[in-house]
Amino acid sequence: PQIRKMLSSGVCTSTIQLPGKVAVVTGANTGIGKETAKELARRGARVYLACRDVQKGELVAREIQMMTGNQQVLVRKLDLADTKSIRAFAKRFLEEEKHLHILINNAGVMMCPYSKTADGFEMHMGVNHLGHFLLTHLLLEKLKESAPSRVVNVSSLAHHLGRIHFHNLQGEKFYQSGLAYCHSKLANILFTQELARRLKASGSGVTVYSVHPGTVNSELVRHSALMRWIWWIFSFFIKTPQQGAQTSLYCALTEGLEVLSGNHFSDCHVAWVSAQARNETVARRLWDVSCDLLGIPVDWLMMAAGPKRSLK
Ligand SMILES: NC(=O)C1=CN([C@@H]2O[C@H](COP(=O)(O)OP(=O)(O)OC[C@H]3O[C@@H](n4cnc5c(N)ncnc54)[C@H](OP(=O)(O)O)[C@@H]3O)[C@@H](O)[C@H]2O)C=CC1
Ligand SMILES: CC1=C(/C=C/C(C)=C/C=C/C(C)=C/C=O)C(C)(C)CCC1
Prior knowledge:
Distance between the termini: 52 Å
Bound molecules: NADPH dihydro-nicotinamide-adenine-dinucleotide phosphate, retinal
Helix content: 40-55%
Order of helices and strands: HEHEHEHEHEHEHHHEEH
Mean pLDDT: 94
Radius of gyration: 18 Å
Strand order of the largest sheet: 3-2-1-4-5-6-7-8
Strand content: 5-15%
């Protein structure tokens, strides 16, 4: 019980209710995303389940509606491995919703065999980082109009092993699936910090947080037999998806957290990040390179956080 308690601590104790609030959760058809969406719905928010498999999403939406009594749980198609799908999702959302108060960038892939997204990005970097970068870019005006509003980027402790190799961002020169995951999770933290810096400077009322959800019994390990085996052996000790959702919920809901925008959280507390994750130069360069890859202007937040940089 002590080991389980140690590995499963951190509970979102906020009692805030969310009537009239709108939330988007990516990868909400299973695991941590599903539990995050369920809790937001329980508190009365209108929740969009942004899923690549709409059928799976619809089943989960029905389940959440039944469990929470909240009928405002909607499913929309979002494939983060295809920028066309991301743009289509955002277009429809912007047309149908006046507000967006909470964006949870939760979806993720881990340890996939080498593969590329529809736009030719390495799968981990493409889905976990670039997909969410583009989605946030497309939804940011709505978040600003709805301020105070929040963005939560689900990263991982695994970022400690990550490095941003700008000369090999698409894994074409060398590739190791476990490390590719770690690099993308580092990118989530660097994006969080850079976005927070720019949002703070523009006084937008939008705040942003990265989180490590803990080691959670979910489908994330689907691509690795070894990880599935480790997860099975330790399934009694690791977090349930509901426990894994607590830190995302804490960052989305806790009152007074605005001053900690840009911070990384684990077990509902501010957590230490690696030296690379605190490197502002790398964060700015990753921002610029991400914009360049996605074909969006580097100054989409209307301010320059630091001196003019080159993309090389
Ligand atoms: N589980 C853990 O121990 C840890 C998890 N995390 C992070 O938590 C987050 C949630 O993971 P978790 O719940 O554990 O894993 P799951 O595999 O259970 O859930 C991942 C979700 O992401 C979705 N997804 C994957 N690829 C895409 C895509 N191209 N477009 C849209 N959605 C996609 C999946 O959809 P589908 O079902 O259709 O595949 C699924 O809904 C991830 O970002 C992960 O990196 C961080 C640290 C530890
Ligand atoms: C060795 C060991 C464990 C393995 C932990 C691992 C392998 C964690 C991997 C985390 C990942 C991949 C995070 C995703 O972002 C457990 C299960 C905690 C139980 C105690 C002993």
